[in-house]
């Protein structure tokens, strides 16, 4: 009877050590991974439409958006020289 209690306690200790080791391993893997795709994609959206507040990654897409979605509004000066 006494032997079973010691085995259970040893396994409990091993379990805790294993969980701590796994948590450390997961944290290192997450740190090595760096950033996630969602954050990177959000950071890439640098142009914002002044009319509808949509975000675009580059001026070409921004001009195409502006011409198709807001044809009656005059083109902003930063998009005049951009080729679509």
Describe this structure in words.
The longest helix is centred in the first third of the chain and has 32 residues, at 2-33. The protein is mostly helical. The protein has helices at residues 2-33, 37-44, 59-69, and strands at residues 47-48, 55-56. 61% of the residues lie in helices and 5% in strands. The model has no long low-confidence stretch (mean pLDDT 82).
Name the quaternary structure. Answer: single chain
Helix/strand class: mainly alpha
Total number of β-strand segments?
2
Fraction in beta strands: under 5%
Q: Give the end-to-end Cα distance, rounded to a whole number of Å.
A: 81 Å
- Mass-distribution shape: rod-shaped
Main beta sheet strand tally, sense and closure:
2 strands, antiparallel
Whole-angstrom Rg: 28 Å
Task: Return the average pLDDT rounded to an integer.
Answer: 82
- Roughly what percent helix? 55-70%
Secondary-structure element pattern, one letter each? HHEEH
What low-confidence regions span 5 or more consecutive residues with pLDDT below 50? none
Number of helices: 3
Brief synopsis:
By secondary structure, the protein is mainly α.
Features:
84 residues, mainly alpha, two-stranded antiparallel sheet, 2 strands, 61% helix, rod-shaped
SSE order and pairing:
Blueprint: H1 2-33, H2 37-44, E1 47-48, E2 55-56, H3 59-69
Antiparallel strand pairs: 1-2
């Amino acid at each position: 009877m006494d032997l079973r209690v010691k085995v259970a306690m040893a396994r409990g200790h091993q379990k805790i050590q294993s969980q701590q080791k796994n948590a450390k391993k997961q944290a290192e893997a997450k740190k090595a991974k760096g950033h996630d795709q969602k954050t990177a994609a959000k950071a890439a959206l640098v142009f914002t439409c002044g009319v509808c507040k949509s975000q675009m990654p580059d001026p070409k897409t921004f001009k195409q958006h502006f011409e198709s979605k807001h044809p009656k509004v005059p083109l902003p000066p930063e998009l005049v020289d951009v080729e679509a």
